[in-house]
Amino acid sequence: MNNFNAQTIMPTKKMTKIRWFYIAFPLLLLFTVSMMDKANINILLANKPFLQDLGIDGNLVKGTLSSIFLVTYAFGQLAWGFIIDKIGAQRSGLIGISLWAFAMVLGGIADSISMILWSRALLGIGEGVLYPMALKLTSNWFPYNEQAKAQTTWYSGNAFGPVLGLPLIAIIASAYGWRESYFILAAISIVCLILFWIMARDNPAKHYAVNQTEFNYIQSNQKVEVTITGNKGSIKTVLISPLFWILTIVYSCFSIGYYGISTFLPSYLTEEKGIDFVNSAVINAGGFALAIVVQMVTGYFSDRFMKRAVFVGGAGALIIVFMLLSLFTTNSTVAAILSILLIGLLFMPAALTMTMLHRVASPEVMGSISGIFGCLSYLIAALGPMIVGIFSQMSGSYNGGFIAILCFIALSLFLSVFLVRKGF
């Protein structure tokens, strides 16, 4: 940002809001489409033609398909974090989006489990660019008092994606075939690639539409009053901070919960609650629609009261309650309602935990730090689907797997209480 060229700035006095339309909006689109791409496998795992064509049988195999994505997603974030700090967020994003669009094409032409595994692995590498890129752009473009609203805005794409994608994928797979769902998602990803190339820039100093007033506003409000880790511009200083590791564990536990539950929820509703294939997708979409509302409301109030950990801990407690009630109800309607409430809360803690990460790392190292943060978190999150798969097979029902997952949510709840006491 120090290379700011005043000649590129529109001389109007009224502040532009480029940061919201040109940065938050394309990020929202990217997260929406990326979630549709990654969630494609979740709904197809309840699609009999897909399972029969590829010879997929057993929950352990299903969990592996989800976990292989999370492993490459984790290492992708680590690599992309350092790449982004070196070549910039926009250029890195263009490369990553291209990779994941190709991965969807590969999935559409797959004729074996191994090809689907390769597709999922490449998708993880490509989509690994998203969080380091988004956090870097958020650090560069948004003052601290707007960062929760900004992050919950683009993070809501993770809920918009399933709302739009799950019914769409189910309808396309039922009417035309599962391969067509891959090809359509690949085309949508390419459209998003073009929009991101046109709209986004690494920082306000490089953008063609931002004016001097907005630039000054962003610059003057990026300093945080309370410095948590001293020299936040040093990677080493951040990594030796206990608070960084607590945030990593909290995020990891919620990620285990999200991926462990969301991977099997359509199959769980279909197999154990007697809800048909398309309706299970609609229920999941309803939960993600609720998640959008929850995200935006908590983003607004957490910026207003600056108490992000309170909302994170509260979500953890409610997730445990709703999951337990869902497991032990025999009424399919009640199970559907509880599933919607559960999904509505599963998303929110992650965005606010990432917002708290801005208090321990500066914009200069945010790409690298978020890459490390994401790599560690998603390597741990990769255990989620496998834990559900293993424990559900051992217990003979999904109950065993989901109860095992709740232990991690309980740990995140405990650590959230500690963060509240530290002023987060």
UniProtKB/TrEMBL annotation:
Transmembrane segments: 60-80, 92-110, 155-176, 182-200, 238-261, 281-302, 309-328, 334-357, 369-392, 398-420
Highest taxon, organism lineage: Bacteria
Subcellular localization, as worded in the UniProt entry: Cell membrane
Keywords, sorted A to Z: Membrane, Transmembrane, Transmembrane helix, Transport
InterPro entries reported in the protein's UniProt record: MFS, MFS_dom, MFS_Na/Anion_cotransporter, MFS_trans_sf
Listed Pfam families: MFS_1
Major localisation: membrane
PROSITE patterns to which the protein is assigned, alphabetical: MFS
GO CC annotations on file: plasma membrane
Gene Ontology molecular functions: transmembrane transporter activity
Bilayer topology: Multi-pass membrane protein
Major facilitator superfamily (MFS) profile domain: residues covered: 23-424
Name recorded for this polypeptide: MFS transporter
